[in-house]
């Protein structure tokens, strides 16, 4: 490994144009950490929030953006038993993915699934960790239940549709165009609701309400989500693109026995992320190996064009995942 590497840093809080190439020291793995020579890195909404100055890295994490990557194990730290130098992995990262080298905890990496390219593998960790932990571990979605995911054409949405369908749930989703709705149906959604021309509350009430809703919109969607839930339903909140504050009538929660919970992935402990990874390894990776689920890919940009990748993501024109080619 060389002493320095190419990376993309945030020069100051702002729009995509503040992302710039730089040289940084190559990180060295600590106890129970692996160093990865990065092949591709995933691009996610939290990266844009960090770039804008509204999502600071947790203590000890790299200040570079990038929460997932694929590559080859280049070095191992003390106490590493799961991986060896040369292994091909994809990994959840605390930060630092927009770079030629990165370190992460050994238990947050997973093998590259059979038949997937390194670009596809880089699109897995952030969305699969997020969807599995929220929809199945927290909200407890079961076979036969009705599941609604907002933003079905996003990386989170395309992952949630496939996993919920593979687990036997009835899947419903919202999207912002007929093209995106069609893509969601092709992935396995029973019904895709164009939120620009249809009312998702009425659509869900017509089928009996949602047992589980996964939402990243927040704001005025929260009271509408409550109306769209079936009795004893569960709303799982993972972001709030429309804002974090809203007025809500709690009487509906009490009378109809509803649950609202939320989580963010990045600040969770190493042990919590390792527990999610283990469930993915045993319950989801076999589906990927068998080709029953797969990442939906939008565009790949060179590392030097990270700003264009962010602009693409923030335009909401994409369907699926955007990744950076690092090598």
Count of separate structural domains = 2
Number of helices: 10
Strand content: 25-35%
Give the proportion of residues in helices: 25-40%
Major β-sheet annotation: 7 strands, mixed
Number of strands: 15
Instruction: Report the end-to-end length measured between terminal Cα atoms.
Output: 14 Å
Radius of gyration: 19 Å
The H-and-E topology, N to C, reads as: EEEHEEEEHHEHEHEHEHEHEHEHE
Structural class by sheet pairing and helices = alpha/beta
User: The CATH topology of the largest domain, please?
Assistant: Quinone Oxidoreductase, Chain A, domain 1
| Global shape | globular
CATH homologous group name of the largest domain: Medium-chain alcohol dehydrogenases, catalytic domain
Averaged pLDDT: 97
Oligomerization: single chain
Unreliable segments (pLDDT under 50, ≥5 consecutive)?
none
* CATH class descriptor name of the largest domain: Alpha Beta
CATH architecture of the largest domain: Alpha-Beta Complex
Keywords: NADP, Oxidoreductase
Domain Enoyl reductase (ER): 14-324
Pfam families: ADH_N, ADH_zinc_N
InterPro entries: ADH-like_C (IPR013149), ADH-like_N (IPR013154), ER (IPR020843), GroES-like_sf (IPR011032), NAD(P)-bd_dom_sf (IPR036291), Quinone_OxRdtase_PIG3 (IPR014189)
